[in-house]
Give the backbone structure.
Amino acid sequence: MKKALFFLLIPFLGFSQWTENFDSGTTMPAGWAVINDGGANGWLFDIPDSGSAQSGANVATLEYNATAHDDYLITKAIVVTAGVSDRISFYVKSRASSFLEDYEVLLSTTNQTKPAFTTVLQATQKAPSAWTQKTFSLSAYVGQTVYVAIHATDTDQFEIYADTFKVDSVPTAVPTCTSFTSPTNGAVGVNVDGILNWTSVASATGYKVKVGTTTGGSDIVNNVDAGNVITYNITGNLNASTVYYATITPYNAVGDAIGCSEISFTTMAPPANDNCSAAVVLTVNPDYSCGVTTPGATQAATASTETAPTCGASGTNDDVWFKFTATNTAHRISLTNVSGFTDMAMAAYSGACGGLVEVSCSDPDIMDLTGLTIGQEYKVRVWTYTSTVTTAATFNICVGTPPPPPANDNCSGAIVLTPGATFAQNAVTATNVGATTDGVPQSCQTNAINNVWYSVVVPASGSLTIETKAAAGSTYSDSIINVFSGACGALVNVTSGCNDDDGDGAFSLVNLTGQTPGEVLLVSIWRWGNTSVFDGAFQISAYNASLSTSEVSQAKNNITAYPNPFADVLNISDVKNVKSISIVDIAGRVVKTIEKPSTSLQLRELNSGMYMVILNMNDGSRQTIKAIKK
């Protein structure tokens, strides 16, 4: 008979004790009820609009109204049994500290209707802005079925949240001790972030934390009540290479757990390159691809005594050091695979430790260095941008070398653009990686660097749009266009020929009208000189809608020139519709005009170099062929 009674008790316990955290969905849990009176908004079940749930993902939430709330969140039936289900607890909070919500806790011994809630378990008070557990004894109602309600009564505040309702019994004994999950006893190389984790104890309602630098000591954390949690973050970083002693003591209404064991652990040492004098040597890559990187980390790093950098100086409490020897007058320092705290800063220096001279400072994770001395050693300092002592990061660092300047780095190497009817028709993907600033003045943006050159022949309409756009995957994001007439070395700004930001985003676009048909214009594309913008690929195109029916018809002609490059004679594949041919050098000068040309052009007298061969067609259209004289 006793055995039979034992098995009967098991389902009874399961029915009497329960937990509800609203994570089964966004509908009201079975057996629960809400009464939404007063303002239009009522109790809902969903992810909180701000912060996180006390457990799981969802909460019960009630939003503000200009009309006073009269809204009840009512539990399912609680069968009160002594030592089994004679206590209820839940967590409550307001969304914002400046808008604390009024609520009271009521009880009904009959049903879930509004008039039935005549017993006050808690008079009206403000819900705090942090999750706070509320616990109420139901021992006075043993043998009865009751309902408990949170009654919200405020007007025009913000939101109130409730979560993790639990019906259980009042403990009759102190809880058992817990055990650490991290760090474990005797652990070495423990992170200095000071995070302690332990296992939950069923009968505990909270945990006390003690940490010291001696056995039994509490000089770091002095028996702090952490609440009913299983993790604790010690304020401020722990010291590196230090032994600490920690104890977690569970407690409940009866008292503290007895005889809980102390653990010890040793924090990690500072990184080897914590100071300038121990800077780690970096490999200089021959390009920007970062084939060789060096790992780095700021955990347990300490502030250096070197002069503060000119950017993000407040965050250098965890700086680490690297060094490299310049193999070029320009190098790029890149931080990749950053994890942990991802907002990094870095600076480069010349000179010796204790007397460093800053070369550059960068908040972005790419820092381009110029004006370096080949063979000289440079130091690189890396740190997390924030001064918060608990932040740390791991990363890879590399030193890259720019490629040689592009062929169109200078005016004399300008690349020919073929005008189309639209941007897309003859768009060219170009790059300014490796380009230099040639000193040619431009007229609309003084902060411009690393320009490259193009040339274009004005179409018969005298109108032309020159535009730049982004290239997929490129770091280049801000261009300046400046258009010139004349020749290299004697350039003249074209009216309305300079633009900074009239294209897509921060890209540039110029609309030219009233230009001389057949004139060669020289186009310089600059990159805005801000440190948050980088060299890279971009698109450029010259176009005008009039070309859709005239000069674009050149494609139908399919006229080619050969051989190319040529020595003395350049052959034209078809001249039956060609009225005349103009030979234009890269400076824009017409060096030869051939009326009624034959298929073989005698060009022995030309100097070696690149030329534009302009075919003037009988129908008024024009085709341009780029040719190179050996």
The first helix runs from residue 2 to 16. Helices lie at 2-16, 554-557. The mean pLDDT is 89.
